[in-house]
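The data are quoted verbatim here:
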Amino acid sequence: MTSEPTSESLPSFPPGFLWGTAIGAHQSEGNNLASDWWFAENQPGSRVAERSGDAIDSYHRWPEDLDLAAGAGFLDHRFGIEWSRVEPADGRISLAAVDHYRRVVEGAVARGLRPMVTLHHFTVPLWFAAGGGWTREDAVERFLHYVDALAPVLDAGVVRVETINEPNIVAVLPQLAAGQADLADGLPLPDEALTRAMIRVHRATVGRLRARHPGLDVGWGVSVQDYQPEPGAEDVTETYCEPRDQVFLRAAEGDDFIGVQTYTRGRIGADGRAVRVAGAQLTQTGWEFYPAALGGAVRRVARVVGGVPIVVTEHGVATADDTERVRYVTGALRSLRAAMDDGVDVRGYFHWSLLDNWEWGHWGPTFGLVAVDRTTFARTPRPSLAWLGALAPGAR
């Protein structure tokens, strides 16, 4: 058996380095009744295998969740704001929802956590989707209307904003929803119209936030795996990466940070297709268990974005074995520190996720540092929670 890592065997990170956990709104809050995903989940014959339902009731239990993160020693907290709660009907802002998220921000600050909010994490209001979604002519205008309504939240102590979570995944969601692709086989080719729409919305949002909330750090988080070429596929790999993540990375030019969200590697064959590694250990999501992917991903991102600082806004592993989680994150952090030692400008690390939650149609994958009983909603910290929290810069 492999012995547990000691603090002496783990890399340390510089003062000021962000050290947090992440959670998504729709995946954790529950009963997101006005969203497009809720509608799709609850249709007869839905392709969504398991419904989100009450999720893990974080909409009401957020104080307990923040206590767990802060009590473990984390310094930062990334969470999502749900647009369909803030604007459940076209043009109708819910002041109660805005006040709810303001209180979450204040609660994080009171516990010593620096809040990073994600404005869009896959779900949109049903009225927006029904009118054409991101390709509708007024998409930018409508998103900015929502962003403007969040002023009381953003001014309550938010430090960083991630405008859009994984825009490159948003651009393939129609294919995934139709059952035309499986992420375990590599990322499908993103839709070009959705790609352009995501970039337009992001750039407009960055401009609006800088004009009205100049103290915020603003960026977005892109799904970036460690794509590696099979022999003879070096040029093909570059072609593979360009529409799948690099066009989104370059759109971060001038931002305060670029978020990198990494879980595995991808092997690319000479035919330009993703290749599964024979005999590889797989996680609960069917992805290769490959800790060094984090270091490889940030190195490639640095080559694309130049001087934009990198923040790892998501990283983790779906496993039922918490010792495997510790082993995976240990290897990943070593690869991350090695990349930093080689000059890659990484400013922080957020673990996905703080708690087990609904993973877009499935309850089986367990990414959480905290287990959740779906009947009682009782939170049970896993040993990895205290272990990872204790690695916070300045804690050792």
